[in-house]
Specification:
Shape: globular
Distance between the termini: 47 Å
Number of strands: 20
Helix content: 25-40%
Length: 505
Amino acid sequence: MKKIEVAGVAFALFASGLLLAGCGKSSKANKMEPAEYYSYIENKSIEEGLKSTKSSISYEDGFDGNFDMKLSLFKEGKELIKTYAGAMAASGSMSDLDWLDSISLNGNIAVNKGAMSAKMTGGVNNAKINLDAVMNDESACLRVPELNKSFISLPSSFLGGMSGLDVGAIVKSYTEYLTAIPSNAEIASEVNKYKNAYLKYATDVSKSTSNVTKGGNSQEFTVLTVNFEGDNAKNMVKEILTLAKDDECIKNFLQSMENFQRTVNSYNSNNGFTYSKFAETVESLLDDIDEYGLGEFSNFKMDVFVNAKDEICGRAFKLEDTEMASYVITRDGKKFGFDLSAIIGGNSFSVAGDGTCKGNLYTGEYTISEGSNELQKFTLENFDAAAAKKGVVKGTLKFNPPQFAAYQVAFDFDYGNSAAKYALSILQDSKKLATLDYNTKISKGSAIKLPSDVVKAEGEEEIMNYVKALKFGELNKIVKKVGLPKEYEDQVTGAVDGLSKQFAE
């Protein structure tokens, strides 16, 4: 899988704004003409963003991914569920979860050259069960090793059953889709291609200075105002659209995505997004621009706020001098302010806040608003701006849902180019009710081979013979390790015994 790291680039640019150098004017800003300086800082910003993806793993032939997920339920959480269940007249049911401590799922999923494999272990408390699967476009090999050490090999078409899904075609199209995702080098080439086309027209630039206050903190910036008007704006948009229309990278990716979606039978070619519709839309836009121009977009401008370190700390986008969207990050010593706003569908939305920094770690309180109405407050703790510039995003997000103000949600994240750790916690009065932990690590794929120890099943008789040989008694041993209340354990083991007798007949 060739991995797109657009998020990494975005966070790197955001981090560049956080790592501010204080007040003052850039020496380069004084020595260069405004248009030349703007081109310099835009190139610098994009280059820094692309650096954060260089350590990403690109997979020409697929990927190998390990994952580990665990849901843990604590005493206070169990008591809360029981209380709510009692209020809803459901006491005495399975809502009494004193027996349940954790549910887990971990394993490995690999994709490579038209083949896929999965080794997964599911668990409830101390009870574990495994599932292994290896498949290509022709065969699917499956087993639950606790029940039978040998794989059963089925035609891939058999797995689709009555659904009409062609599992073999899904495997084939999925691996083709992955290899069509642009590599890091292709992403860099694409970004630079469109950047160069844009900068060719960004020649009407004026320069000023401004003292900007956000979150009670002020900072002096060099402000570059980039103007696009008349034919200059029109020609820029046309050139970018023409590049997109003829872009082989976009074409290959959209066509492979379209083919994959079609194979999983969730794709409607009449109203779905296809490459041909993308190309038709772009062509239609080009025709409209030739005939009608850009309308209100014939006069738009962008203010770029630059600090003394030649870093972009904010932008404001305007149509006919009306601000449509902006963001600015200010810093005054160990304090910083942040404001992001946009007009969407005629309504104004904003995220604003302030906080303090210790080295490269930033902690702040923010408010999401629609107009004058506050929608949600949240805290972002220990956001590592230096790590984000290298493509690693980590910190802790905390908030109290408006409908459940007595409870707090805490989300710890540490996301890198090839590994990630997430932890979601629900708390009440600082006590954990439940947690959900998820870790994953991706590495370069290797060849996937179908297992040799298989029982081939081409028809119903071979399948039934394999099922009859399953050790259902072992399954009941696993059920008894769960720790279910006796009533429910007997129901489950009884159902397993009944299934075993049915297949034995």
